[in-house]
Amino acid sequence: MKSMKKVFFIAIICMLALNVSAVKIQTNYRNSLILAYSQANSVYEDENIKLEIYDEQLWATNKTSKTIFIDYAQCFAFHNGSSTSLYNPDDKKQGDAKASMLNLTTKNSEFLALAPNMGTKQNETKICWLTTRVYGKYSTWEIPTVDFTEYDKRLLKAIAQLVKGSNPSLNANQFEGTSVLHFTEDESINNIGVTIAYAFKKETDEWTTVSLSTWVCDVIFAPYWIEMPKELSDKEKRGFEYKETDPIYIHVRANSPFEFDEDKSPVLVCEWEGDYDDGTFKLRPTWIPNKNDYSAGDIFTSSLMLRPDIELYKHVIKFDGADSDWGKMTYADWADETFQK
User: Fold this and answer.
1) What mean pLDDT value characterizes the chain?
2) I need a surface site. Which of 9, 112, 164, 242 has the fewest CB within 10 A?
3) In sequence order, what are the beta bridge partners of 43?
4) DSSP characters over 31-98
5) How many domains does the chain divide into?
């Protein structure tokens, strides 16, 4: 009899423990706008060079046994129909009246050398960032200095549809639901691309010019939270044995738009914060700087947003599913609050 009472008592304790742990499950989330670019159009390849757009950047691989030179003066990045010279990425967008921004020749250009392929695994070389111009403040009623482009109009229309399809909280600016839109190239809300000039000599007239562009084929509006890696203790850091650490995981409450290599993701997860009353919203990066002199909140400041070459944590996008159980969901006032271990 005593043994049965003991078993019953243990069972009650276990049930209470499970209930307590269930109550404690809480997800501090923020809203995100996820831009999935066409995979088929994110790669260009010929007999000499391979270009790929992934992880927000353009990467190049030399397929030959000779050094390849890329001439920045002849290279341009494109975003929604406007172009920017790669020679001086801090310059403003080019317009029709400023087609040749710096009037440069190859004599005083800057070059990037791609190492020859030596028969082993050839690592890609980063050429430039392509998505930083996606970030910033958007207004449904005013765009300073320029007119609304067709891409802008389609983006704002898409935002209205996505927000309406989500589950807004009481203040209409926080959403627990997930909504998705699919686009063809002609319907897309965002287009990025590049024109690259390469040759096997710096001083030559025989430059090969190639172009690569891709567009957003799927856009997802969904909650997200960030799983930070376990930090090693001072004791664990000791010694010279290899210690593998986890990347940062960006958890998204949505289904993946397509299968992709997590190391070469053509998916951009933007932090989204809207102001319904003012008709504005902001898109910010979700990558985390891996330096002690940057706080987690600094990733959303304009100073870091314009300096994308800082050292970043490796991050992996995890699509948990649109119907995943995240427990009690609480909107985080600041991105730091979404960091969970």
Assistant:
1) 81
2) 242
3) 52
4) EEEEEEE-STTSEEE-SSEEEEEETTEEEEEE-SSS-EEEEGGG-EEEETTEEEESS-TTSPPP-GGG
5) 1
